[in-house]
Amino acid sequence: MNDDERLTVMKQRIVRSFRWHDDIIVPMADEFGISVEEMEDLFMNALDMSSLESLHSTFDSAKFNCLRKQLYIDLRLCWFAGGMELITYEEAEDIQNRLASEVYMHNKPYDEALEEGRKEILEILKNTSVKEE
Question: What is the percentage of the chain residues whose pLDDT exceeds 70?
């Protein structure tokens, strides 16, 4: 077995032995409509050994960031904080970070977090007065 073949076998062991195979590879293969083997090959060809070994922790970090972004979108913070500036950037960050933590770390249902966020935004909007120039 030459070095390239040995590296491929080592990468396959990593890809197939860690829990993230079921968390990442299988769902992504389904999502993209390709076989599990094709998805494994994509990751093995794109990532080095170190990146493969840390993939699950990278995936967990990305899940939290994706959740934050989804809350930002679903709470329409892009309008209130970004476009209309009725909510400060800091308020928007606080709301999305806190709610994402509650959902991700404390298993709060996403719909409940959205409802809580909407109530907070409404309260901020009620307390916002028009600034005269």
Answer: 90
